[in-house]
Amino acid sequence: MPETTEIHGRCDSPFEGVRDVFQQAFERGDELGASVCVTVEGETVVDLYGGYADDARTQPWRPDSLVNVFSTTKGMTTLCALRLVEEGLLDVDAPVARYWPEFAAAGKADLPVRYLLSHRAGLAAIQKPLPAGSLYNWTTMTEALAEQAPWWTPGEAHGYHALSFGFLVGEVVRRISGMSLGNYFREQFAEPLGLDFHIGLPEAHEPRVSPLVQGPVHAEDGTDLFAQIMADPESLLAKAFINPPMLPTDANTREWREAEIPAANGHGTASALARIYGALALGGEIDGVHVLSSEIIERARQEQCLGKDLILPVVSRFGLGFQMPPAEEPVGPNFKVFGHAGAGGSYGQADPENRMSFGYTMNLMHSGVWLVDPRPRALLRAVYAAMA
Active site includes 35? Predict the structure, then answer.
């Protein structure tokens, strides 16, 4: 029987049900260390944390514990592109090659930026084998993607660009701004908002990082996504995730943490996710800090694609860079919410209709056939019940 875990932090009285759900996850053994944060009208109503930052259970999880959030990073990368759209420096309907001339190779001269943001570019993977370590070399990755021909006719279907999304969008940001994606995010968003979120983690923050721990596989046959990838290394699914070669344990290395992999290696806290999505839930500004205009936010949350994903074995739905819930997988009563989830469980979202935001981070990785882990979905059910 798992030991009783003390839950720390604050929780306004109407949201005690969120604390109960959070506590129960620890008691079931579904959590090792985790945080959840919720804002309503820009004010924090839930900010809870508990458990351990290490598998040996010797270090307590702290309110400032950092963890790799995998694809939850994509939401932050999206913000960088949208800021350039707002400033009139990026047109999502213009060809990518306008900003990145080399991208025109292999029949991509007319491929619009919109397709990069909505996973419709057909560039979910690189065909030629890349050597180990290439993921940490920006030039290697972007040159390979510029040379790559689309795997399907761009715009006619969508498939999750698991790792390539960050390099594709990030290179457009770099070409326009002259800054790396990580530096651009830091200057434009993290520093003005006081966000504890990093794309390319400085070594000074290493003592606060909680290593990821492989947790349960939620599948009747015990086969998780990684097992499916390894079963056929030549499949498009495999190439999307492990070309260049990558192991789940790589995320716990300094090499991974210090690189800029804008689709997958953001490190942050639940409160950072809740704060920036809180700004979006309020129309683009919080505490006097401008994030995005309400017009750009509305454009970004317009559905771009819905249906069977050509990479993941799910139905997926995307706006401009943000995930949106399909009917098959609700994350609450509002299907207009937007945000992004990450492998293993992390999640952040904005709900402008309810002026609510949500952030969840954890170190115990769960895997299953879903877009959003059941743990944050359960927490969100409790949030919406409290707001009903």
Answer: no
Give pLDDT tens digits for 342-379: 999 999 999 999 999 999 999 999 999 899 999 999 99
Distance CA 330, CA 334 (A): 8
Domain ranges across the chain: 7-70+194-387, 76-185
Residue in 65, 71, 177, 210 annotated catalytic: 71
CB 331 within 8 A of CB 317: no
76-185 has which fold? Answer: Beta-lactamase (3.40.710)
Nearest to 42 by CA among 269, 296, 350, 270: 350
pTM of the model: 0.97
Return the CATH number of the domain spanning residue range 7-70+194-387.
Answer: 3.40.710.10
Q: Label residue 220 exposed, middle or buried (CB < 10 Å: 0-12, 13-18, 19+).
A: exposed
DSSP secondary-structure letter at 187? Answer: I
The answer to whether the beta carbons of residues 5 and 20 sit under 8 Å apart is no
Q: Which two tokens stand for residue 223?
A: 């086969």
How do 197-199 and 347-351 pair as beta strands? unpaired
Residue 57: both structure tokens together: 């259970």
Cis bond leading into 244, ω under 30°?
Answer: yes
- Report the C-alpha gap between 96 and 68 in whole angstroms: 29
Question: Which tens digits make up the pLDDT trace of 9-60?
Answer: 999 999 999 999 999 999 999 999 999 999 999 999 999 999 999 999 999 9
Crossing angle of helices 16-27 and 374-387, rounded to 10°:
160
Residue 323 DSSP symbol? B
Q: How far apart are the first and last CA of the chain?
A: 34
Identify each DSSP E strand in the chain by its residue range: 7-11, 33-40, 43-51, 67-68, 197-199, 213-218, 266-268, 285-286, 289-290, 305-308, 315-318, 338-341, 347-351, 356-362, 364-368
Q: How far apart are CA 386 and CA 19, in angstroms?
A: 11
Cβ contact 151:309 at 8 Å = no
Nearest to 154 by CA among 178, 123, 128: 123
Please report, for the chain, how many H helices and E strands are present, in that order: 13, 15
